[in-house]
Specification:
- The structure is a homodimer.
- Chain A is α/β, with parallel strands linked by helices.
- The first copy, chain A, folds into two domains: 30-258 and 472-479, Aldehyde Dehydrogenase, Chain A, domain 1 (3-Layer(aba) Sandwich), CATH 3.40.605; 264-444, Aldehyde Dehydrogenase, Chain A, domain 2.
- The first copy, chain A, has 14 helices and 23 strands.
- In chain A, the strands form six sheets. A seven-stranded mixed beta sheet of chain A has the order 14-17-18-13-12-19-20, with helices on both faces.
- Chain A is globular.
């Protein structure tokens, strides 16, 4: 089988490759037959040039056309659903059903359709008009967006089909996707589908481009290139921070979703009231997708008590009685083992699990540590163990719990469970203000693993969870605003204004901030 | 006279100083009598701790109280107007009237009052409610804001009274101001006034703190400190980029307003139609505050023609016949001379001026360069000459003009002048798309020097004009959003929600995005 081509400048063409790679079926260990190229700078350079031309066209492309592409793409994904699910299953080990077929694929097409609606509506861009001074402004496309997709969502966060992709396109930008090397064939099919939709809807051919793999130094060069508008990265902290540094050095916005422990605080009243139920809820959340969600609960704070010991025993029993799932790759399995060892080295004790198993699996793992020990080494004990492992911090009292909370790094989420009768309210009032500024999303009585695609969602948070605490990667329309620059038009002649800023409301539905009030009206004519 | 104290942790107290400095009267060369301390890390550390405590209180302080502080501060500034104007005049050489007394001071108090109104209203935070999923989100205070004020606006951009200060406080954050060492006494008076208003309105005493000066290495340490939420910096590109790198390395948002040439394109029809008037308008803009505005027109593109030569002759005559103003400091005068020499070394020819004059003045200066020469050295020929000097690029034809435009760095503004009869429309249509993505604010038939405090203003732009193209430093309420993080509340119990996200609209006037529509209503009860 020849090496697969890459999608550059409106063509599937042979890469200028420095080498090739194949993916692995993590469940079987089998090396999959398809061969994919490792691109050199020549491919990046061609993609950047083609994208720059596409960006110019997209800036003046009617929103209807962009929306048609996004919905057409969603339709075409559904038409190839069986093949996509089979391929992603082979490349990731994720279950075909319900996960891939019934959850992730519908979520992906749902995101694309929501993004289409947002593009059509246009309100995402916060168009603002000062009629007295005739100054008008709006968010506008930032230029080519380079998207690095992660390993853990082959559809919903894929660089060529996922949430960042949908948001970047809906905001009017071309995308260069860097596929995740763990699921290249899935990415290839998605790119084929996307490109067919591009052609069908007449968008510039280079609106969607895709490379499979790059040498690390080419990646650093790519994120810093002047032709690029911005970068969306979801992946490991180590890789993300290197790329971020390269982008920062040239003043380029870099939207990263990195690591997160998603702390959970279970207050004593809640534990007393419904400890067994919470153990079940917690274990279910921990094991969802074998713990390979960005929002998997990695660190739980309990107050030392008999109830806490019972909770731990309950979780242990459930972890022991549940068959471990296949991890996404041998790399994930190796990293998980290393992270668990690092937590142990820092003072955490194994409650259950801790050992690698055959077939890229890892025993369902729970560790525990005292609050005192945690506070002696808070950085090491916040090592992310990506996969089916979680750490419980057992604190002596409220003061120690508060001290643990203020030592937490930035996280995507933080949950607090309290009893329903109000016994925990004083502790809630003490802890919530400590947790709140350290997390993007605060939950009550709920595990963090469900990330709804809602306008009010924040899938973001303070560094190192992301690169900027003001933005969300999930939730339309807010996620579009990452891929935009603010453009002001001062005394610009009426016919030269973008449609969103002309007196007439372009769709009759667009929300615009006119002299301080949000309105869907036309401006007085 | 003893060294002045600094404002830390609710006290005017002696700095732990490594040395002292005095400001200079740039008009007379006189060293002013007041002695100010250069703080060591001990002062920074104390300020950071005090601010962190204040931040916790401010997060739950009613907006009315914050608004009262801002308006009370504005009132008190007006009460000390004469002293402030005298002091700023002595420290900066800027004219007392109209500039300081009638323009900048009213602008400063106007900003504080607009910020108060924005704090009270709360709509700036884009509160968003998904009633179906019970997910609610809002922008919320990011934590302590460190503000570096620039030399060129002793009131309106002062770290302890200017636009960044007003926005940071209105968004609910404490401020640590780093005064500009060129106008320490002005900053001291403003801090006294601010602190009196803090005490009067019962805000946490460390809501406003101020240091005068720091060793560069302490500044780098300060911007990277974990206790700090973010930084607002207005100043030189060299200093700003060093601080930005330190903040970037620890993932801290850094809002910088750096350099800008504010390109102006005068199309042939406009030049033919009203060349003499444009020469006057241009010269007036160039010489405003001796060219020491962030939006001073530093680079103008003309098409080679007799009309262009007449324009240049006209500008030259006006520059020669206008008395040069005093520059802000001897440092500004030295840097301006060096920048003009650098432009000459890169191939620009002097049309008029080019020489330092006595009393921290510089001859009003115009340089010119051909489009061809510009394109041979575009980076060097975009050296910012901060002060009363400007460069004209004379291009051969439209293709060369377009080529110059695509070589422009990111700028705050870009202006295009075209004729009123439509003869320039084809060129406008060609050039505007090239200029638009490179500037934050696009103007028609207008010089860039007026920066209105409007909700629709963008005083921002692509790097290196600023550190992020999505934000504005001027224009309320958008400027508040720099000093915020996105906070989502998922299933949080009703009484625990911030007022802005509860069912009842807290003011009855706050705009909230409820299920996709902006509304001022309460949620159904």
């Amino acid at each position: 089988m020849p090496t697969h081509p890459i999608l550059i400048a409106g063509q599937w063409r042979a890469a200028k490759a420095s080498g090739t790679f194949r993916a692995e079926n993590p469940a079987t260990g089998e090396i999959l037959p398809d061969e994919f190229p490792v691109s050199t700078w020549a491919d990046c350079d061609a993609a950047l040039n083609a994208a720059a031309d596409a960006a110019t066209v997209l800036r003046v492309t009617p929103p209807e056309q962009i929306a048609n592409f996004l919905t057409g793409f969603a339709d075409r994904i559904e038409a190839r659903k069986i093949e996509l699910v089979e391929t992603a299953h082979a490349e990731t080990g994720l279950p075909k059903a319900p996960r891939l077929a019934d959850v992730e694929l519908p979520r992906t097409t749902g995101q694309l359709r929501q993004a289409a609606a947002a593009a059509l509506d246009g309100s995402w861009a916060l168009p603002t008009i000062d009629t007295k001074l005739n100054i008008r402004s709006t968010l506008a496309p930032i230029g080519t967006v380079l998207i690095f997709g992660p390993n853990n969502f082959p559809f919903a966060f894929n660089g060529v089909a996922g949430g960042d992709f949908a948001a970047a396109i809906a905001a009017g930008n071309p995308v260069i996707a860097k596929a995740h090397p763990c699921h290249p064939r899935t990415s290839m099919i998605l790119a084929e589908v996307a490109f067919a939709a591009v052609k069908e809807t007449g968008l510039p051919p280079a609106t969607v481009q895709m490379l499979y793999q790059l040498a690390p130094e080419e990646g650093l060069r790519l994120v810093a290139d002047a032709r690029l508008g911005t970068v969306g990265f979801t992946g490991s902290r180590a890789a993300g921070l290197k790329l971020k540094a390269a982008a920062d050095a040239v003043g380029k916005p870099f939207y990263a979703e990195l690591s997160s422990l998603n702390p959970v605080v279970i207050l004593p009243g809640a534990l007393a009231e419904r400890g067994a139920k919470l153990a079940e809820e917690f274990t279910g959340s921990c094991l969802m997708a074998s713990g390979q969600f960005c929002t998997s609960p990695g660190l739980t704070i309990l107050f030392a008590s008999e109830a806490a010991e019972q909770f731990i025993v309950g979780v242990k029993a459930k972890l022991e009685s549940t068959a471990p799932g296949t991890l996404l790759s041998s790399g994930v399995a190796r990293n998980l083992a290393a992270s668990v060892r690092a937590l142990q080295a820092a003072g955490a004790e194994l409650v259950v699990g801790g050992s690698p198993l055959a077939g890229n699996k890892f025993a369902n793992t729970l560790l525990r540590v005292s609050g005192e020990m945690f506070l002696s080494s808070p950085e090491k004990l916040q090592t992310e163990a990506f996969g089916n492992a979680s750490l419980v911090v057992v604190v002596r009292d409220a003061a120690e719990a508060a001290n643990v909370l203020v030592h937490l790094e930035g996280n995507l989420t933080g949950s607090i469970y309290s009893d329903t009768a109000g016994k925990d309210d004083a502790l809630y009032a003490q802890f919530a203000p400590l947790l709140r500024p350290r997390v993007g999303r605060l939950l009550n009585d709920k595990m963090p693993t469900g990330v709804a695609v809602s306008a009010a969602m924040n899938h973001g948070g303070p560094f190192p969870a992301t690169g900027h605490p003001g933005f969300t990667a999930v939730g339309i329309p807010a996620s579009l605003r990452r891929f935009a620059m603010l453009q002001c038009f001062d005394n610009v002649r009426p016919a030269r204004l973008p449609a969103a800023l002309q007196n007439k409301n372009p769709s009759g539905k667009m929300w615009r901030l006119i002299d301080g009030n949000w309105s869907q009206e036309n401006l007085g004519e």
